[in-house]
Structures are given as C-alpha cells and as structure tokens.
Amino acid sequence: MLLASPATATALTTQAELIDNSGNAIGTVQVEQGHKGVLINLQARDLPPGYHGMHFHAVGDCSDLAAFKSAGGHVNPFDQPHGFRNPDGPHEGNLPNLVVAADGTVDVELYSDLVELDFGPAKLLDDDGTALIVHTDKDDHYSQPIGGSGGRIACAVIR
What we know:
Blueprint: E1 13-20, E2 25-34, E3 37-44, E4 50-52, E5 54-57, E6 98-100, E7 106-112, E8 130-135, E9 152-158
C-alpha cells in the first residue's frame, strides 16, 4: 500500500520592527513570499488616526529618525510613475493606504504582486534591503512623486 501526504513548503518570511521618529518600537511588519508577490501583515499602535500612504522604499535603513530619508526613494527599478490611478503606473513600491483606527492602532493584511522577497528586479531582500515607510498623509495614488503622502512617520527595515 502506498500512502501519500501533501507536500508542505515553508514560505520565505521576514519580520521587522516598526519604529516611529523617536526610535520607539510601535509595531511589527511581516512579509511572506507568495506564489506571485508578497503577503504583508502589519500591526501597530500610537499612529495618528486616519489614512496614511505606505510604500516600499529602496534602502533598508531607518537610521535617520527625524525623516527616515536614509530609506531612499520608492522601490522603482523600471522608473515608472507613482500611483495605482496613474495610467502609466504603478511602480513597484506602491502599496494601498494604511487606515489607522481612532485609538491609533492598525492590524492589516494585504498583498502586493508588484514585488518579490528574493527574486527579480523588484526583490525586497537585495544587498541593502528595503524599508516599509508609513507617511503622514493619504496617498492619492496619482500625484508625483509620492501621491501627496507627506512626511515619513514610521519605518521598518525589511531584511
């Protein structure tokens, strides 16, 4: 008698601490490789309520606490315009807006098929890593270069 069991594969996953502009840990970000793209789980507290732009930035560096400029610009290996609503976009760093509850918390799961963890030109786990940045304002998904998202208020290094 031949018995078969389903094959189980362990998906490539990375987890990072989300910090604010004072360097305080305010949450976690987990990124898991999917079949075509990545699954992102983000839990945070102490964020301003409302909509906030959120993007993958090209450098995994959150050392510049004042503005997180050390994370560079958005992941954009093909130099595409910003925005899901842009007929010539989106670029690979684009993500949906983050919606923070009135008590400053958020617990969200979302998927991006624009990037991979360890494969292709838009891989997040390249030599210098990637940062997930939360911005001060809502992303309009059209305006250049960052959709009117404003300053950077939270950062997680994806490595």
